[in-house]
Amino acid sequence: MVRGYVKRCFHERCTIISEDGKEIQSNGNYREGTIVEINDKDISVISDNQEDVLRFLNKLEENISLEGKGLFPAMEKAAKKIKASALIGRAAIVRFHNDADGIIGGIAISSVLPAFKQPQPSATYTERDAINDIGNSRLSFMPLAVFIDFGSSEESGSNYDILKAAGFEIIVIDHHPYDDNVAEKVLMVNSLKEGLPTDYTAGYLSVQIAKLLGKDLTDLGEIALAGDKSSLGYSEDAEKTALALDYAAFYSHYGSAFNIYRDVLKDKELRDALYRKAKEALEETKRHLKRIVKTKKVGEFTLYYFDAEAIGSKGEFPGSGKMATLLAEELKGENAIILATTGKMLSFRLSKKGSVDLSKLVDVLVEKVSFIVNGGGHANAASFRIKDPSYKDVAVEAVITELEEFLKKVDG
């Protein structure tokens, strides 16, 4: 005697998934999402409450075999939960940060989990995001949400309570600094949490999860690494593809972007065209940066700062974060911290990886400067948001002041 989950019924013909992952066809008219008991002669309804469904899912996950071992146990646990959800036809949402690393993560997880795909413009999961996700899944029982390349911060975690109250389970696949309280609310697959460097990016981790489920997307993993300049290494072609994806992401509408990204990966002619456009824009930006960048010596570092809105037109590629990265690459090897300002957003980059932890600097700024709303990132790239663009110049002054104190403590 085994238990099963009623996946769907149509014209009194039902598909039931057993605890060992087998698909059983049965005559009957059972409600979808119901747990049933199956014996040789008949099927009896057990329950459709959330606790019983979770117990069934846990048993189903235990019985799933993976192809190889993950980098750490949480990765294997996530792979099994994703596979179990796919088997029972569970409603799922995949949100991914809208850059090359996040996009690759979204494509990898969506290859093993049928889901509603949603690019995420912000590094923070907001109340608005939570309400939208509940609305998109309101007719579904116990949906699964998978968040990729964002969502580990305290600001995001405060809105997970809304999702969980609506019956969601949540997986976060990330490589940014995480909050311990958030890690208790979700199944967190985070390289930093496992003692690995942030170079094991979210997209790369997602590709490895897909591989555990029989989907070998190794080439995509390289693109994810290239998108975040990971020290794990990547090819020149992967770097070009990552830039083409970033360019497409900058101009795409969030609701319709996913298929465009897949087209970029499949179509070399389209990919090359986007890469050329992106490269031209970056070369033009380099010329302008030399004209507008300002410098300030702070301890052993030089702070390079500039107003990104003084370059080109608003809403044109590259964005302020990409501009900061561009300048960081030009200054590679120097002890330099780059700060790009635009509207309410200010972005940091390091020219020499590991020379200081920018995410910790942002934490200090958020705590000590009243007009800074929130922020986050990782050691080599971070950003923060201010209440109003009118605070921009004052924010730069605050950065200089707090950076001096921060560096003294680091050196001490």
Cα separation of the termini: 66 Å
**What class, by secondary structure content?**
alpha/beta
Bulk shape: elongated
The CATH topology of the largest domain turns out to be inorganic pyrophosphatase (n-terminal core)
Q: Which consecutive residue ranges, at least 5 long each, have pLDDT under 50?
A: none
CATH architecture of the largest domain: Alpha-Beta Complex
Radius of gyration of CA atoms, rounded to a whole number? 23 Å
Strand content: 15-25%
Number of domains: 3
Q: Helical proportion? A: 40-55%
The tally of strands reads 16
Write the layout of secondary structure elements.
Blueprint: E1 2-10, E2 13-18, E3 23-27, E4 35-38, E5 43-47, H1 50-62, H2 73-88, E6 92-97, H3 100-110, E7 116-120, H4 127-136, E8 144-148, H5 154-157, H6 160-165, E9 169-174, H7 180-185, E10 187-190, H8 202-212, H9 218-227, H10 236-251, H11 258-266, H12 268-292, E11 294-298, E12 301-307, H13 320-330, E13 336-342, E14 345-350, H14 358-368, E15 372-378, E16 381-386, H15 392-411
Parallel strand pairs: 6-7, 6-8, 8-9, 9-10, 12-13
Antiparallel strand pairs: 1-2, 1-4, 2-3, 4-5, 11-12, 13-14, 14-16, 15-16
Describe this structure as you would to a colleague.
- With 412 residues, the chain is of the alpha/beta class.
- Helices cover 43% and strands 23% of the residues.
- The protein has 3 domains: 46 residues; 194 residues, inorganic pyrophosphatase (n-terminal core), CATH 3.90.1640; 127 residues, Diaminopimelate Epimerase, Chain A, domain 1 (Roll), CATH 3.10.310.40.
- A 6-stranded mixed β-sheet has the order 11-12-13-14-16-15.
- Helix 1 crosses helix 2, helix 8 runs antiparallel to helix 9 and helix 10 packs antiparallel against helix 11.
